[in-house]
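Limitations

Structures in this collection are predictions, not experimental determinations, and the ligand pose is part of the prediction. Treat each record accordingly. The example that follows, with MRU as the small molecule, is included so readers can see exactly what is and is not provided: the inputs are given verbatim, and the output is the predicted complex.
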Amino acid sequence: MRTIRWDRGTITTIDQTLLPVECKSIECKNVNTLCEAIVSLRIRGAPALGAAGGYGVALAAHTGTAGTLSEFMRDIEIESDRIRRTRPTAINLTWGVDRVIVAVRRASSIDEAKRIALSEATAIADEDVERNTQLSRHGAALLDDGDTVLTHCNAGRLACVDVGTALGVIRAAVEEGKVLSVVSCETRPLNQGSRLTVWELMQDTIPVTLIPDSAAGTMMRKGLIDKVIVGADRITKDAVFNKIGTYTHSVLAKEHKVPFYVAAPISTFDSTRLERDVTIEERDPDELRRINDVMLAPADAAVYNPAFDATPVENVTAVITEDGVVYPAESESWNDLFF
Ligand code: MRU
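Predicted complex:
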């Protein structure tokens, strides 16, 4: 089942805040409910956000009530901007919105604009599945029979339309007959690792062990991790942005000579910025201070809660894309990705 899809004027998506207890879908019938779903991480993960952005513009078009084409286009631009502003770090969200908006600007009537918006959004979703399938095959070649692979956050089919990036690579290697086991970091504070990655891999019957984020170092030091593989929310020429904690794993991997791989489609690359230009989302302090009614810290504790960090490309062994594997250390082929 696709994580996000369009169904007769509605965006249907798995509510990831309910996992692993319940795998239930929610419907977004207007841009307000979509924005709430993105901000509260009901839908999350960079490629899934790309599809959500594209479908979001289609939803804005579908629910638009303006009488003239220019008023209709003005309303869609306003709604698109609201979608873009929900989460700043994953480039895929803006990329998905922009791709559909650019296509819609070609329309010469409101009906045509609606048709174009939906067909472009559908193309984004379909391509996501295809691209992740390709990158998974490329990445599988980097994993060896018997490997134990550490991953952080959730870069699986839940984070994409389907297939996944980091978990797609692991699944493709298993399908090739390699015996792998996965170590999933819990990924505090919102536990995408324990709630989503462990659930997803168990659904696929791929052996997975949950660890606290802070156990990664000792496992690498003991030689218990053969490779690290993570997804990405944005890749600039100088850094890979991913869930907070990824940078720490990259430093540990470098120290212990463990290959550190990033799996991400080309839509995650940002040619227009460097690390210093990217906004890191900071989230609600209560994500650290409490779980529902249970207090984990004093209610007024000062908190710093960045959702992402930047890993310098010097710490990255290779980036796996749908077009193949690229090594940042080979500066010519790396630079070619940024035009
Ligand atoms: O805050 P989230 O859950 O949206 O963060 C997701 C991640 O950091 C993923 O690792 C990233 O989007 C890659 S998903 C293929």
